[in-house]
Structures are given as structure tokens and as C-alpha cells.
Amino acid sequence: MTLPRFALVAALLVVAGLFLPMVIPNPYYFYAGYVVLQYVVIATGWNILGGYAGYTNFGASAFFGAGAYAAAFLFKAFGLPLIFQILGAAAVGMFLGVATGYLTLRIQGVYFAIATVALVIVLETLVHNTEYLGGASGMTHIAPPPPAWFGGQTQFVFWVMLVIAACAVVLARWLELSWIGRGLRAIRASEPAAESCGVPTLRLKLLACALSGGVMAAAGAPYPTYTSYLDPVSAFSLLIGLNALAMPLIGGTRNWKGPVIGALLLASVQQIATVTISSEFNILAVGVVLIAFVVLAPEGLLGLKSAWARPKLRLSGAKP
Amino acid sequence: MRISRRQFTKLSAAASVGLAAPAIWTKGRAQNRPVRVGCSASLTGPLSGTKNMVIGYELWRDDVNAAGGLLGREVELIVYDDQSAPSNVPAIYSKLVDVDQVDFLFTPYGANLTATIMPFAKQRDRFIVGILTLASNDQLKHDKFFQAAPWGPDGATNWARGFFDIANSTGVKKMAILAADTEFSKTAAEGGRRVSEEFGMDVVDFQMYPPTNRDFSAIIRNIRATEPEAVFVCSYPADSTAIVHGIQEIGLGDSARLFGGGMVGPQYASLMESLGPSLNGIVNFHLYVPEPTMKFEGIESFLDRYRPIAEDRQVDPLGFYIPPFCYAAGQFISTAVNATGSLDQTEVSNWLHENPVDTVVGQINFDEIGNWTERRVLMIQFQNVDGSGIDQFRQAGKEVIIDPPDYKSGELVPLMDARKT
């Protein structure tokens, strides 16, 4: 499917989302759906750097939290509407991504991963000590009423998250198929080899950091409107970072479908577990599934599918 | 796979029936379904120490059902685990209201988790009882919100005022204030400073510390150097433990007569057990203690039944702090429903605004935003604590009520004298 056609399908989904409040009268599905879509965006954003370029980022919650607090700040200080909060949050995320990337991309592997964890701690400590953002106690965020069409705030933020998810997936697919994606894949395969072939590795990695950070921060922007309350412990939660890592690994990190599939599967299971099993089964499930996939299917579900399809191709005589 | 037109029609009909069946089934059962009461509780996560609240709800539900239910219908309790995370709360309460169709709600534990659902409760015009939330309805002023805890009006700044009343009555002129940098503590500390100035006391030290701080030796030495006559402390369980150990090791000097006020932790059996005699002399807030002035109808029976369940579930064996107030929260609902003969949220709320309710924690009147009309936060002093046995706290005389005067059960002993015992 060509990119314009893909973007058209995404746009049609967004338009269809406008009519969902009329088809589904029960608001609960929008609450749960919002969380699932939020993770589609976070996982897609994470995969730009972690999947395409192979730089494992444990600091997803730093970008998410920064986006949430940027949005809350813009609303509190200037009363800006949600669309400008999202754009502002994305800009903050991109800036953070570039700044962090510039400081840390010279190191690789586990050292880079540890450096990204530090970002979470730094930002959380910063918020803890910023009175204007509510400090350790958090801040109440009472958003203005949503457009009448949606029938409720949750239906509205669900649709907003659907728009962000559509944009994030289109961006990820474009990156994957463009020269940038090819460059990032070369970096993942062998950075010195890519460099020797003329791939501008630092510039590409900084670009990936910026886009990845921007997408994850955009995912955080509607969060204060969704919960009406924002506190540093939730915004910079370990679970967000864990999910951001687990979802692409479960789905597959090689293309845009992996994080989407992983997020849809894992976030849905978590939402169901919250109101059925009611325990820390969520975190346990993520951990167990993550270990299982790392050991049994390091290429994720998409990798499993490819591996399953390969012998069939040989049997049918088709060329692999 | 090809699907014929006939197969497509059959599949469509089956799908329609499948989608419609839950609605038909739900409507059919609605007439005789139980009265549902729902909430989230922190069964896991950092606030899981509060999960004994569920026992309070369960005992209330069992008592109501044993007495024939509400309006002849059984009471069903629906509790989900919010994992102590505010982000989980909105979806859980939407599930409770939109899918489970509960009739009444309790909030999650505490102000932070409750903040995420108060706009929802107001928007949906739902009856909701606040479980130890502080000032959660001050801004929204939802007329169907009722507070289970005795913070009283202006609770955000005044809940620990009893400590300053005691200080004033004993002639304290130099006050030091130490508080964790969190909403609950900060607000109380600011309120404390205002009351100190109102009473003409000199605030000789005002210190905030990060909630993660565990080493208080420098802070305590700093306080000691200012020679305060009273030290007002607002802390959380882990820091409360470290602070009590700190004053045990370093001391506060001979000038200090009063210490404590807003420490969270010494209400829980685990901390009382571990701190033992080092608690002696500390004056601190509590919501219920088994003193002779607190003999409300049903409370002793409640605590007797609570104890074996708590031991079985390995939660706080005393259960003085939260569970009785959860039971009382249920009593708000059952009393108002029985009095009005209705489950209508407006009728039940109006009745509660206009009438007192008798509960296991005493008779309660509500003001226009659902707070208790009278502050009844207790200031108790630990006296004659001997060893680390937990059973001693089930008897009167170990946590003596000093304030409010209506519930006073003993005299204040100066800090140093009490710590010598």
C-alpha cells in the first residue's frame, strides 16, 4: 500500500472514530480504549529509536511525563486548548529527545539504557520540587467542556488519542520505508559499517530521538484531561516504561505493525485484568510475557509468523 | 472462504442476537437485582497497607444482608484493585457506573486517588462517600458527596488544630514545624503556622523535607538548636519511624514538652509494634482509640469481628484507623435508604444533609459540602507503652485522648516525663 493510500485509510479511521459515541453508548469502552490507544502511541514512538535504530530506551515514562506536565503547564499558565497542549508537549518531547540523544548517543547498549533511566529520575525530581506544577502532591486539572458532538470528556479524549495514534503510525510507516528508515536499520545492523558507507549516523540517531520523544510526549498530553489530576508518581511510572519496551518486543520491532499489535494485545489484556483478576497480575503478566518472548520469539509475533511461513514457502516450491 | 447470501443472513442474525442478549438479560434482571455498592481499593501497590478497608465494607454488607437487605434487596459489594495508581481509577469507576451499574459509590482511599473521580462523580451526579479524603470536595462542591472521616469543616488547614489547642493551653511560646513535602503534610503545616501565629507563638523553625528522606539526624539537631517548646510533625509511615528513632537517639533537649501532631504511621499496629516504648509521650492524631469516652454503639462488636478476619488476611490486626470509618460509610447509605424508602440518589443525599446519622464511630451531621459539621480528629498521647506487644493497645490508657475536650480521657504528661516511664 502506498503512503498516501495508507494515510487515507488512517484518516478514514479517524473520521469513523467521530461516530463511535453514537454507536457505542457505554462510556466505559472509551475509558479502556483510551488507555489501549495511548499505549499504541507510546509503543510506536519507542520503536522509532528502540526498534528501527536498536537503541533500547528505558526512559519512555520521562517523555510521557514531560508531555503530560507540559500540557498541564500550558493549560494552567495560558489556558491553551488541547490541540496546542499536544503540539507544545510534542515540541518539549522532541527537544528532550535531541538533548538526551546528544548527551548519551555516544554510548551504546546497556550504558545507553541506564542513561535513559536517569532522565526519568531527573525529571521526576524536578517536578517534585516545582511548586507551580503541584510538587509531590500533584495538581488538579479541570479541562473545559468537550465539543457537544462527543457527549462526554472521555469520548473526546479517546478520539483525540485516536488522531494522535493515526498520526504516529503513519509517521512510523513513512520513516520505515524512507531513506531514514534504511539508515536506521543500517545503524542497528552495524554502526561502524553504516558510518563507513556514508550513513550520517549521529544526525539520523538525533532525528530518531527527536521523533521518538515527540511521539511519546504527545501521548502524555491528553493524560491530565483524561484523569483530571496529575501527579509525578503516575506520570513517570515504571509501568509506562516497561510497557513501552514490552509491547514492541511482543509484536515485533522490525516494522510499524509490531508495536501496534503488541500494544493492542497487551494493553487490552491489562485492561481486562484490572477489572477481573484485580491484582498486580498486570505487571507480572508483562514480565512473564516479556521473558517468554525474549527467549522463545525474539523477533516478536511478526517474527514468529515469518518463521512459520518460511517452511511452507519451501514446501510449495516458492522462492524464499 | 466464500460466504453465500443465506449464510451471511444467518451470521448477521446470530451476531445481532449475541449483541442484544446482554442488554435483554440485564433489563430482565434489573427489577430484582441486588443493590450494588462499588469502589476501588488499593489492594496492591504503595497504598496496600490500607486494604483492610475492604473488611469494613464487607462487615457492613453482611450485617445489612443479615437484617434483610436494603428495601428487601440484597446488598452486593463490588471492589476493584486500583493498584494505588491514579491512572487506573477513572476507568474503574466508569466500569462500576456504566457496566456494573452500581447504585452507590465509595471513593478510593485518600485525596490523590479521589481527585481523579470527583469531576466524574459531579458530572454524573452520583452519590459518593469519601474515604479519608481531605478537602476533595472543597472546589467542586458536589452536593452528593459525604465524608467518612472526621476532618470537619476547613479540614485541609484545621484537621490538626487540636495539637495547637493543647500547646496553647500548656503555655507553649516557641513552636517548631517539620513536614514532608506532600499535599497532606504541607497544607497541615501551613495551617499549623497560621494557628501558631493566631495564638501568639513564635515559629522558631519551619522545615520541609523530601518525602523520600530517611535520615533525620541533621534536621533533628537543627530543631534542637532552636530550643522549641513544641514540635509539630507531619510525616508518613517510613519517615515517622525514622523521626521517632532520631529523637530517641539524639533527643530534643529539655525545652520540648510536646511532640507529634500529624504523623501518619503510629496508627498502624506494625509501627506501634516496632516502635514500642519509644512512642511514649508523643502526642499524635488518631481517628479512633478504645478509650472509655469512645464507646459508640456497635464499635466493640465490629472490632471483635474484624480481628479474626484481619489475622486471617494478614492485615492491620488493630483496625482502629480506617475500617470503622468504612463501616460507617456503609451506614450512611443504609440509614438514608431505609429512612427515605428509596434508592434515589437525590432523596438519599437530601436526607443525609438534613438528618444526623448514628454510626459505629458516633453520631454524624454533614454540612452543605458533605464534611462533618464538627471536627473530631483525636489528639492522643502514648502513655505507659511497655514492650512491643500489640494487645496492650486494645486496652484503655495506652493512647490517652487529650483533645477534643468532649472526648478527653486523661491528662497530658510532659514529653520527657512520659518518656522516662
Could you name the key traits of this structure?
A: 320 residues; ABC transporter involved in vitamin B12 uptake, BtuC; 15 helices; 1% strand; B: 421 residues; alpha/beta; Rossmann fold; 5-stranded parallel sheet; 18% strand
Describe what is shown at a glance:
The complex is a heterodimer of chains A (320) and B (421). By secondary structure, chain A is an all-alpha fold. Chain A has 15 helices and two strands.
Structural summary, described in words:
- The complex is a heterodimer of chains A (320) and B (421).
- Helix content of chain A is 76%, strand content 1%.
- Chain A has helices at residues 3-23, 28-52, 60-78, 82-104, 109-128, 153-177, 179-189, 191-196, 201-220, 223-227, 232-235, 238-251, 257-274, 281-296, 300-315, and strands spanning 139-140, 229-230.
- Chain A is globular, with a radius of gyration of 20 Å.
- Chain B is α/β, with parallel strands linked by helices and 421 residues long.
- Chain B folds into 2 domains: 35-155 and 297-364, Response regulator (Rossmann fold, 3-Layer(aba) Sandwich), CATH 3.40.50.2300; 156-289 and 378-420, Rossmann fold (3-Layer(aba) Sandwich), CATH 3.40.50.2300.
- Helices cover 40% and strands 18% of the residues of chain B.
- Chain B contains 15 helices and 14 strands.
- The termini of chain B are far apart.
